[in-house]
Amino acid sequence: MDQTIFWYALATVLLFFKMFATSAYQAFHRIGKMTFKIPEDAAFVGREPAREELPQVQRAARAWLNDLENIPIFLGLGVAYILVGASPEMAAWLFLVFTGARYLHTVFYLGGIQPWRTVAFAVGVVCLFIMSIQILAAII
After folding, report:
1. Domains of the chain: which residue ranges?
2. pLDDT tens digits, one per residue of 50-86
3. Calpha distance 94→52 (Å, rounded)
4. pLDDT for 84-108, tens place per residue?
5. Cα–Cα distance between 88 and 69 in angstroms, integer?
6. pLDDT digits (tens, 9 = 90+) for 20-55
7. Residue 23: φ, ψ to 5°
8. Can you tell me where the transmembrane regions are (predicted)?
9. What is the pTM of this model?
10. Does domain 3-139 have CATH number 1.20.120.550?
11. CA distance 113 to 12
């Protein structure tokens, strides 16, 4: 198997696990406190719907939204990176540093830790820009 494809596949699976863990974090807090905003979910456990989501659930939802702004871009750029044969030597670094940055971003987001959340976000964005430059270099 091509090394670039290997690192891309690994990063993709790790990002899936991270996003799943964010969802599990939300479920843990909802179930643990038996607090559900959606009426049918609350009724299922014999409770009234909450007026708003728990703070932990809200924070995790914002982390999810940030993932939805960044991870699809990574996935698209990663496919382009592979298809154009961009630098295989840099692939592992770019894909894994991006993935690590997204993990850290989520941990820092859930913990309300600044400025490290912003640093983790910026590291991921830098990886995306470097991937873009590598793609352009491969096709020009």
Report:
1. 3-139
2. 999 999 999 999 999 999 999 999 999 999 999 999 9
3. 39
4. 999 999 999 999 999 999 999 999 9
5. 25
6. 999 999 999 999 999 888 899 889 988 899 999 999
7. -65, -40
8. 6-28, 68-84, 90-111, 118-139
9. 0.93
10. yes
11. 25
Q: Retrieve residue 139's tokens.
A: 């096709």
Among residues 71, 84, 70, the alpha carbon closest in space to that of 133 is found at 84
Q: Give the CA distances from residue 86 to residues 1, 6, 9, 109, in Å, rounded to whole numbers and listed in that order.
A: 16, 14, 16, 32
Please identify which residue in the block is written with the tokens 């989501």.
Answer: 53
Q: How far apart are CA 100 and CA 111, in angstroms?
A: 16
Amino acid at 139: I
Phi, psi (deg, nearest 5) at residue 87: -40, 105
